[in-house]
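Risk mitigation, structural track. In case the binding assays with D-malate fail to produce interpretable data, a predicted complex structure has been prepared as a fallback.
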Amino acid sequence: MAKRNIQVCMTPKLFGLYADKKSIVVVVDVLRATSSMCIAFEKGVEKLIPVSTVEEALEYRNGGRDYILVAERNGKAVKSFDFGNSPQVYLDMDVKGRTVVMTTTNGTKSINIAKKDHDVVVGSFLNLDAIAKWLIKQDRDVIIFCAGWKDKFNLEDTLFAGALVEQLLDTDLYDNSCDATQASQVLWDRAKDDLFGFLKNSSHRNRLAKLNIDSDVHFCLKANQTNKIPILKGNVLVVEDEC
Ligand code: MLT
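Fallback model:
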C-alpha cells in the first residue's frame, strides 16, 4: 500500500509550493494563536472565527451577537478588543457555548491561506497526541503549515512539526521524503528534552519576554492539555467529532 505524504511548510510565503488540493493541512502557531484556539475549545468555546484583519473582526462587534473579540498585533493586544492573544485568558472565564472572533499577526492569516483549497485543522503542543491520533485515522496526506513570524521561519512552530512528524512516522504509514519534514525532526530531537531552554534565544520568546508574557511561553509548550481538535467548517472553527 502506498505510503502517505507528510510535508512541512516552514512559512506562509512557501505554502503555494506545497498546496496539492488534497492533503489535510495542520496549521500551527505555537506562540500563541493555535495554542489559544486549542485551550479555548477545551474550556467550552463553541465556535471560533479566525479573521485576517482587525477591520473584519470589528465588523462582528456591530453584528449584534454576543461575540468575544480578540486581537493581537506584534504580540500586543489591540485596543478596543476584549482581549489580546494570551491563551490564559480562557482559564478564568466562563466561555461555554460562546463564539470567539480572533485575528492575530500570523496564525489566523495562515488558516485563511490554507482554507482556500484544503481541509484545515489546528494543532499546537496542547493537542499534540490527539491530533496525531486523529490524523493517523484519516487515510490522507498531511501538510504541517507553520505560521512563522511575518513570513519568516520560526523555531517553535517547526519544533511542533517535528514532534508531530515523529508520531506519524512511528506508524510506518507515512513516507519521509520531504527535506523540511526531515529538518523538523532533527530540530525536535535536539530540543525535545528542554523546549523552553532550547527556545531561550528564539525571536518570539524574546518578543513575548519583553512584553512580560513569558508565562504564556511555558503554557504553550506544555503538551497534551486537551484532546480537542479544532477543524474548519467554512469560515468557522469547531471541535471535530471524536472519531
Ligand atoms: C501570531 O499570530 O503569530 C501569534 O499569535 C502572535 C502572538 O500571539 O503573539
